[in-house]
Amino acid sequence: MDPPISVTLVHRAPRPATYSIEQLFEVIREAMPADIQTTVIRAPSPRATPGAMFQNARACVKADPKIAHIVGDVHYLALACPPQRTIVTVHDLGMLTAPQSIFARGAKRFLWFTAPLRHARLVTVISEATRNALLDTVNIDPGKVRIIPNCVAPQFRPRVAPPRNSKFRLLHIGSTPNKNLRRVALACRGLNVTLRIVGRLRPSQEQILEEAGVCFSCVSDLSLREMVAEYHQADAVVFPSLLEGFGMPIIEAQACGVPVITSDLEPMRTVTGGYALLVNPYSVEHIRWGIVRLMSQPRLREHLSKAGVKHAAAFRATEVAEQYAELYREVARCDRC
After folding, report:
1. Residues 55 and 99 in one domain
2. How many domains does the chain have?
3. Residue 254 · residue 150 · CB < 8 Å
4. What average pLDDT score do residues 209-219 get?
């Protein structure tokens, strides 16, 4: 019997309230088949200064991975790993779309994308939309880019029954600009809803919510168990995001049996499997239409709930872990050649 294939997962440094990637790959690790043996190293520094990047690269070299898988947004660490035994996962290209100087954007494009992705043997992305955006941005061999979706943690299970809230409870995940909270707040004006927001609100966002007269509450830094409870207590999830690499809240909500309103954009459109209410995220009126439709049609809510649970089963951790395992086997076979 061949010995287990040894894989080192390289994470970014721990940062407060930024752990979704780490949680995701911990779930994948636990679901790995027996022939794959994984360990984890974390970059020592969360900073992106030359000194900190050198410190992180040195830690990566010291670990001497047999197969290195860069799983967080520290793609540049691939340059410190053997090219024929390195895989990089790209979740999105958000760092290139943030407001910044032309020089800063060019430096990030080269150090986080062009150089490490050309260096690595394989690149994985989490959706077709991310693959297209990546190939539009970086000149690399399309044949080395593979799509492996995110998985849903096993804790996200269907609730026993819909909640009995006095007001229709909408769950909104995230408070960064791409999550589109301002339009959601305006869409909720005058509706008999409670908007439950997961994320830290800026004063300007609180002001918009208050001026719209929306009944809202906010929570952040939740554990996995607490996040599952938020889904189970919601009548619907409203997620009209403007930009996502994947859109994990869609699958999490579906796995919990919660109907979803999301954007008629990629990758959200594909991720739903057709089992969500799609709206134009740039139109307050259309977002409001989606909310009112779900509020007024219990049969539609029930249909989306049941169909969503079935669709989310395709994103089980065991399915996704096997896809990564096959990549590791491919790299190991080529390394022996």
Report:
1. yes
2. 2
3. no
4. 96
